[in-house]
């Protein structure tokens, strides 16, 4: 009994308490609604209005691509007129947020700056590759250009470096300096040679240094080129240092160990290492079948090594294999 | 070349890309890689074709409390630079009819878009496939193929063409017997006799390999080449066949290459080489495959277990 009593009294106390708070809450709501009515001239959004509402923007829901925003955003339209590929930028969501917050002034200043270094038609692809450059301050960019000038790069060189490698200007001066120093020390290059290398393949300087190190190992230790040959290769075909090391070794393996081409010839024609292995392989096997695989320049019926990598199959058949293209195609269906 | 002239824009070209495609699979290229290359090339070629004009959008401008103007403006969202290329890899469905191992090369049937249904039919119809299997005497490897470790070496001077032919004829006879056992009928029934009198028959299940014919087409000791006609076979089975042949010849042998030269009515002549995996050649090839299937309606839905029908 006593327990029930206790419960009932406590519950009634609780109910009264709740009622009190309810009253105070409803009073507050009243106050709120009154102020709302005072602030706006109409009490409901369903009522008609004579005001100009065209300045209100529509509600933008969350989206997966920039296409839903572009018809309302002048910045994005400007970027599109520059031929920037927005569909590529939106693949990286962290970039999209930054791009949307850009102002037109930002872009304008940047274009006025970059047009001295990059061809006007290429500005679009430049920004597509590195949209974050719009966020770098122009002073920094100027300092980085000045650094190149102080290192005696000619204006043509600077133009080539900046337009071929959109990421170059993102790197701070000490960082670029360290990297140029690394290449100079590692490959024993003279000042002019460093300049030649960075103009010839500007992307190599800002490339992943670990990758460069492993490729150096592959070319020097696994392929067996000497240090001086390494330097000549680097200055002639810096792209070898940006390739996948496994593919590189596979190609070298076929050319050197199967076709028995000496290091010297490969050093003189490093382009053959840039060609896909299957193309070299099938042409070599075809020549072998015809008995024309003669790669020594001092003997007759010499076939230059580049014939295996360059040109179309028709040209190859006509000039070197001396047969019809159909024969070659037929051969390809037997391997 | 005539097919490519009819293609006015990418949409029409895309609609024609429904059907079977016969490609030449190079060795050491996986089927997934091959599929990916074909479809990437198709997307590249379709995106290079003339595109449709950009869509327009209606925009109602001006203050809302006054007379508003209706304007037709360009829809920036429709630009390929904004919404991405018109054709992407996900737009294509692609499947192969029968599997061909990583190290095998040769004729491969691919179905693109609606052609994926045809590849299913081809798979269930169990078309015979012809292979050229290259082998070498004197060495055995743990995988029975050139990529394995050498486990045994033996002399092979005593092997002659006649000896190979003898062993092969014996193998073929043994397989012919299993062919009748695999038909699913009682061996001593009249139905079985009627079926067997019509010639070769296809197996009831798709699990066990059945070999219809083996022939030695090239022998230059230690290298030799067999031509094998079979269904339900797979590359590893053909490797073991070479190994068994070596054992029966009292030496050892391993397989150096497997090449599929025919599947049903689709042969090497039809197959597209890797350099020809381009839109114009693919459309021509699809036309050819289509006409082959129209001429041989029983190819996809065989009515009898007999191979001849």
From TrEMBL, chain A:
Xref: Pfam families: mTERF
Protein name (database record): Transcription termination factor 3, mitochondrial
Keyword Transit peptide recorded: yes
Domain of life the protein comes from: Eukaryota
Keywords: Transit peptide
Family: Belongs to the mTERF family.
InterPro entries reported for this sequence: MTERF, MTERF_sf
TrEMBL record, chain B:
Gene3D superfamilies: Pseudouridine synthase (3.30.2350.10)
Transmembrane feature ranges: none
Top-level taxon in the UniProt lineage: Eukaryota
Residues of the signal peptide: none
Pseudouridine synthase II N-terminal domain mapped to chain residues: 100-231
Pfam families noted in UniProt: TruB_N
InterPro entries cross-referenced by the UniProt entry: PsdUridine_synth_cat_dom_sf, PsdUridine_synth_N, Trub2
PANTHER family given in the database record: PSEUDOURIDINE SYNTHASE-RELATED, PSEUDOURIDYLATE SYNTHASE TRUB2, MITOCHONDRIAL
Membership in a protein family: Belongs to the pseudouridine synthase TruB family.
Name of the featured protein: Pseudouridine synthase II N-terminal domain-containing protein
Native source species: Chilo suppressalis (Asiatic rice borer moth)
Taxonomic lineage from the root: Eukaryota, Metazoa, Ecdysozoa, Arthropoda, Hexapoda
């Amino acid at each position: 009994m006593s327990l029930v009593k206790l419960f009932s009294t406590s519950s009634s106390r609780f109910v009264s308490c709740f009622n009190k708070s309810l009253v105070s809450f409803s009073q507050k709501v009243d106050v709120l609604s009154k102020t709302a009515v005072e602030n706006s001239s109409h009490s409901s959004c369903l009522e008609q209005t004579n005001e100009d509402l065209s300045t209100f923007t529509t509600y933008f829901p969350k989206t997966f691509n920039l296409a839903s925003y572009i018809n309302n955003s002048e910045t994005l339209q400007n970027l599109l007129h520059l031929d920037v590929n927005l569909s590529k930028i939106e693949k990286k969501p962290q970039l999209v947020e930054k791009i949307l917050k850009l102002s037109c002034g930002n872009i304008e200043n940047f274009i006025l700056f970059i047009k001295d270094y990059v061809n006007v038609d290429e500005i679009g692809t430049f920004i597509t590759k590195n949209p974050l450059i719009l966020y770098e301050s122009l002073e920094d960019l100027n300092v980085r250009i000045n650094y190149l000038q102080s290192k005696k790069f000619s204006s043509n060189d600077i133009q080539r470096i900046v337009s071929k490698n959109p990421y170059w200007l993102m790197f701070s001066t000490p960082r670029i300096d360290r990297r140029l120093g690394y290449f100079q020390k590692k490959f024993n290059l003279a000042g002019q040679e460093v300049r030649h290398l960075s103009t010839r393949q500007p992307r190599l300087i800002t490339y992943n240094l670990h990758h460069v190190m492993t490729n150096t190992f592959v070319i020097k230790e696994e392929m067996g080129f000497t240090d001086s040959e390494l330097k000549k290769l680097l200055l002639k075909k810096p792209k070898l240092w940006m390739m996948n090391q496994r593919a590189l070794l596979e190609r070298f393996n076929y050319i050197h160990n199967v076709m028995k081409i000496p290091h010297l010839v490969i050093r003189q024609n490093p382009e053959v290492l840039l060609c896909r292995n299957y193309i070299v392989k099938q042409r070599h096997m075809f020549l072998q079948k015809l008995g024309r695989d003669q790669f020594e320049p001092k003997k007759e019926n010499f076939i230059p090594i580049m014939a295996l990598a360059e040109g179309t199959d028709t040209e190859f058949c006509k000039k070197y294999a001396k047969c019809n293209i159909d024969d070659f195609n037929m051969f390809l269906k037997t391997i | 070349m005539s097919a490519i002239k009819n293609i006015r824009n990418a949409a029409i070209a895309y609609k024609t890309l429904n059907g079977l495609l016969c490609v030449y699979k190079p060795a050491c290229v996986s089927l997934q890689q091959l599929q990916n290359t074909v479809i990437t090339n198709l997307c590249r070629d379709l995106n290079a074709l003339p595109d449709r004009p950009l869509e327009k959008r209606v925009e109602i401008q001006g203050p809302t409390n006054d007379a508003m103007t209706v304007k037709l403006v360009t829809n920036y969202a429709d630009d390929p630079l904004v919404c991405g290329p018109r054709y992407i890899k996900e737009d294509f469905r692609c499947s192969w009819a029968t599997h061909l191992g990583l190290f095998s090369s040769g004729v491969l049937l691919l179905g693109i878009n609606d052609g994926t249904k045809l590849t299913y039919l081809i798979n269930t119809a169990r078309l015979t496939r012809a292979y050229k299997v290259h082998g070498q005497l004197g060495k055995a490897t743990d995988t029975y193929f050139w990529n394995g470790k050498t486990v045994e070496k033996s002399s092979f001077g005593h092997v002659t063409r006649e000896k190979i032919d003898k062993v092969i004829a014996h193998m073929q006879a043994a397989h012919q017997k299993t062919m009748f056992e695999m038909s699913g009928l009682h061996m001593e029934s009249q139905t079985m006799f009627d079926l067997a009198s019509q010639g070769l028959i296809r197996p009831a299940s798709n699990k066990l390999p059945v070999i219809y014919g083996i022939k030695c087409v090239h022998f230059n000791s230690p290298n030799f080449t067999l031509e094998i006609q079979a269904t339900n076979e797979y590359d590893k089975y053909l490797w073991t066949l070479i190994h068994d042949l070596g054992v029966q010849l009292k030496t050892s042998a391993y397989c150096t290459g497997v090449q599929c030269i025919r599947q049903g009515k689709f042969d090497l002549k039809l197959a597209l080489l890797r350099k020809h995996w381009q839109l114009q050649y693919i459309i021509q090839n699809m036309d050819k495959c289509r006409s082959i299937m129209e001429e041989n309606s029983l190819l996809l839905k065989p009515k009898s277990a007999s191979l001849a029908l």
